[in-house]
Design brief:
The chain is α+β, with helices and mostly antiparallel strands. 32% of the residues lie in helices and 35% in strands. The protein has a domain at 12-60: Alpha-Beta Plaits (2-Layer Sandwich), CATH 3.30.70. Bound molecules: dioxo(di-mu-sulfide)dimolybdenum. Belongs to the cation transport ATPase (P-type) (TC 3.A.3) family. Type IB subfamily.
């Protein structure tokens, strides 16, 4: 069972930033798919809530040096 997660991501200034986040998140256990958009500063993910939490995903982004929150 996967769920969709939409995030607002702050701090990306070049396309290598978004590629980097996308790569790291895609490798996380429980994340099926991650698509990071530099222009709109958003990320769309498909993840398995039973395996990985939203908090863990956001923490991972913060550790890379960016800020993220659930899109409102
Ligand atoms: Mo280039 Mo994006 O250093 O952080 S990857 S600005």
């Amino acid at each position: 069972q996967t769920e969709k997660l939409e995030l607002d991501i702050q701090g990306m200034t070049c396309s290598a930033c978004s590629t980097r986040i996308q790569k790291v998140l895609s490798k996380m256990k429980g994340v099926q798919e991650a698509s990071i958009n530099l222009t709109t500063e958003t990320g769309t993910l498909q993840y398995e809530p039973g395996i990985v939490s939203v908090e863990e995903i956001i923490e991972k982004i913060k550790k890379l040096g960016y800020d993220a929150e659930i899109k409102k």
